Amino acid sequence: MVAQEESLIGEVYAQIEQLWGSLSEQHRDLLLANLRIHQYRKNEIIYKDSDTPEQMYYLIQGKVKIYKDGIGGRNQIIRVIKAGQFFGYRAYFANEDYKTAGTALEPTSIAMIPTKIVVEMMKSNSNICFFYIRKLSAELGVSDEKIISLTQKHIRGRLAEALLFLKDCYGLEEDGSTLSIYLSREDLANLSNMTTSNAIRTLSSFSNEKLIAIDGRKIKLINEEELQKVSKLG
Predict the structure, then answer these.
(1) pTM for the full predicted model
(2) Would you say residue 101 has pLDDT above 90?
(3) Are 219 and 206 in contact (CB under 8 A)?
(4) What is the pLDDT of residues 106-128, one digit of tens each?
(5) Which residue spans within the chain are E strands per DSSP?
(6) Which residues are paired to 67 by β-bridges?
């Protein structure tokens, strides 16, 4: 078991170095000495709103949702994370506690690095600094687009956009049309900023129009071109 974990840590290190750029031997040793891997069960909380950010999270395997508790206990999903992405770092750089929460959508493996270690490495490695500047800038752009979508698009446009987003983020199964993520109707509604009942009705409408096919939590994209039109027109 120890040998397997050491092998996985080595693989994760190689992935991180590919994102950050070549690291010095000193930084390599520092990262390997502080990198820890944790396993999360489906629906297990990774961090909570108002927690102090102390770790950089790197998703090795699985899926994670980042969300905000809303009025009346209704959640708003801010983004979903896929393997190979860092998350949970914005609050640290803003010098504040978390304003969102992170939860595993399925059995998930995550590498954790103390944020202070990453910051120490940043002081002498500008590549790491630029990596996070680019990530934060890209996320800001996505947030701007999401605000426009949530405020200007009708529910059909928002749900079509969410389905296409999930396809772009997680891809399709071997049949080339089934989304490789199975969200509950509530999670899909929270991603699209609508009530669960509206999400169910709109999915049923899409199914009747032969835009998608539904099998439990599995959603198959039948007419992606038309979905794109619905998303664009809002």
Answers:
(1) 0.86
(2) yes
(3) no
(4) 999 999 999 999 999 999 999 99
(5) 36-40, 45-47, 55-61, 64-69, 75-81, 86-87, 101-104, 108-114, 212-215, 218-221
(6) 77, 101
Kindly calculate the radius of gyration of the chain based on its CA atoms and give it in whole angstroms: 19
| Count of Cβ atoms closer than 10 Å to residue 31 Cβ | 20
Two structure tokens written together for 59? 């998703």
Residue identified by tokens 């539904």 is 214
Rounded distance between C-alpha atoms, residue 59 and residue 100, angstroms: 17
Please check whether residue 86 is in contact with residue 58, taking contact to mean a CB–CB distance below 8 angstroms: yes
Reduced to 3 states (helix: H, G, I; strand: E, B; else coil), residue 201 is helix
Whose tokens are 């801010």? That residue is: 78
Q: Which helix (H) or strand (E) holds 147?
A: helix 126-152
Q: In this structure, what are the phi and psi dihedrals at residue 144, rounded to the nearest 5 degrees?
A: -60, -45
Nearest CA among 147, 56, 141, 142 for reference residue 102: 56
- Answer whether residue 1 shows pLDDT above 70: no
Alpha-carbon span 18 to 84, nearest angstrom: 10
**120-133 exposure pattern, b = at least 16 Cβ within 10 A, e = fewer:** ebbeebeebeebbe
Q: CA 198, 199, 203, 204 torsion: positive or negative? A: negative
What HEC string does 152-179 produce? HCCHHHHHHHHHHHHHHHHCECCCCCEE
